[in-house]
Design brief:
- The model has no long low-confidence stretch (mean pLDDT 95).
- By secondary structure, the protein is an alpha/beta fold.
- The chain has 19 helices and 14 strands.
- The strands form 4 sheets. The chain has a 6-stranded mixed sheet, sandwiched between helices. Strands 7-6-5-8 form a 4-stranded parallel sheet, with helices on both faces. A two-stranded antiparallel sheet has the order 1-2.
- It folds into 2 domains: 163 residues, Rossmann fold, CATH 3.40.50.1100; 229 residues, Rossmann fold, CATH 3.40.50.
- It starts with a strand and ends with a helix.
């Protein structure tokens, strides 16, 4: 397992766009109040390599890092493809997803700073589960605002969090002023990450001993997730004898994209190689329920609805956009992160969008061939990989294709059933 995170901000194709921060208090002042100081510093670190604190390393190893890199031989045979398809198995972690990588780090820094409670939002529940578990590791409380439609669709994720002692509330929430305002305007609002972020930050502001943790969208989160790309490079070379980016082969790194944390963790350590000429393609697979990277406009906007976050330049559907209540809660963002949007804008990152049926069909195929059941969000990455393999075969190419298997799907069976079996 890597003992350092990799700061890839210096490998970006251009400078990060300036943020717009107005209001009283400003978003920066709010962030300084609710976020642990070290996390704010890690948004723009000076060093290229940042040592992972030893207690974090120990917990990550105990939880199963490094995670396996699985060669999908049976899927390749079923497709009749010359591509070599690998899955990075983040689904095997105790909370069922890659989110644990940064949850452990952020909980550690919160505990070191003397915070007693972790407050956060969660879409599909994978981040909330990881925060609930990380809180227990460091003797902290957890309070989690979960998008209402996902809470109703995935009740067992709530049960998991509550088993760990976390308090889970639906978002929009009657416990906050912004939640009550949203419900007053749209009483049957299904919730979104925009509502849940607003609920969580407002709640954290009212509790001085609380730390607000973000599951995505922030550079410090992307930093912690570089474990993904670093481990993959080492595993491909040492275990499978593969070098990424061989000229003329068109190798692909593919991840689903909501807030961008698993995507950036996958491709961040490889940005410099691509800039130096490696034959690498980076692909973001998003949901047609919130197709920001494929259909959004490039404009300033906020990731929350309460005005607690600054305006950042990114691909957006607009703050008034309410994503439909489908089964891919982790991808239902109205505004894409500035960093992911920059990579897309500069042509470093490609993007495709799939509806939930296509994503879940891809998930079912993976289960039937490899015996792996992934969350619907990760199914989007599998669907993208199937298209990439088909196009490579048509061109007589044999690329390496790495799919980020970002989460387990056992707690998403209701979605698989309603979309694929009840239809």
């Amino acid at each position: 397992m890597p003992t350092h995170w990799y700061n890839f901000l210096g490998d970006l194709p251009g400078p990060m766009p300036e943020v717009r921060d107005s209001g009283s208090p400003t978003a920066a002042e709010i962030s300084a109040q609710v976020r642990p100081r070290v996390l704010i510093e890690q948004n723009a670190p000076d060093e290229q390599w940042i040592a992972i604190p030893e207690p974090v390393v120990q917990w990550l190893r105990q939880c199963g890092r490094p995670t396996p890199l699985h060669r999908a031989h049976r899927l390749e045979k079923h497709l009749g493809t010359g591509a070599r398809i690998y899955l990075k198995r983040e689904d095997v972690l105790p909370s069922g997803s890659f989110k644990l990588n940064t949850a452990i780090a952020q909980a550690y820094y919160a505990a070191e700073e003397g915070r007693t409670t972790l407050v956060t939002e969660t879409g599909a529940g994978q981040w909330g589960m990881s925060v609930a578990l990380a809180a227990k590791m460091f003797g902290l409380r957890a309070e989690i605002f979960m998008v209402r439609c996902s809470l109703e669709q995935k009740p067992y994720r709530r049960h998991y969090m509550e088993l760990l002692g976390a308090e889970v509330r639906p978002s929009p929430s009657t416990h906050t002023a912004i939640g009550r305002k949203i419900l007053g305007e749209v009483p049957d609002h299904p919730g979104s990450l925009g509502t849940a972020i607003s609920d969580a930050i407002e709640h954290a502001l009212g509790h001085p001993s609380a730390a607000y943790l973000a599951g995505s969208g922030m550079p410090h989160v992307y930093l912690h997730q570089t474990l993904l790309g670093l481990e993959i490079a080492q595993q491909l070379k040492e275990t499978h004898g593969e070098d990424l980016g061989v000229d003329g082969r068109g190798d692909h790194l593919i991840a689903c994209s909501g807030g961008g944390s698993n995507l950036c963790g996958l491709i961040g350590p490889h940005l410099r190689a691509k800039a130096d000429g490696a034959d690498l393609r980076f692909l973001a697979a998003e949901s047609t329920a919130a197709p920001r990277l494929t259909q959004g406009v490039y404009a300033y906007g906020r990731t929350d609805l309460g005005g607690f976050t600054p305006e950042v330049l990114g691909y957006t559907m607009g703050e008034s956009f309410i994503p439909p209540p489908n089964h891919v809660g982790g991808l239902r963002n109205h505004h894409s992160s500035a960093l992911v949007s920059l990579l897309r804008r500069e042509g470093v990152l490609d993007a495709v969008a799939f509806d939930q049926r296509t994503a879940l069909e891809a998930g079912r195929l993976l289960l039937q061939t490899e015996g792996l059941l992934l969350a619907p969000e990760a199914g989007h990455a599998v669907a993208a990989a199937l298209d990439v393999a088909a196009k490579a075969d048509a061109q007589n190419l044999e690329p390496v294709i790495v799919i980020l298997a970002s989460g387990a799907g056992f707690l998403d069976l209701q979605g698989y059933d309603e979309v694929l079996l009840d239809a």
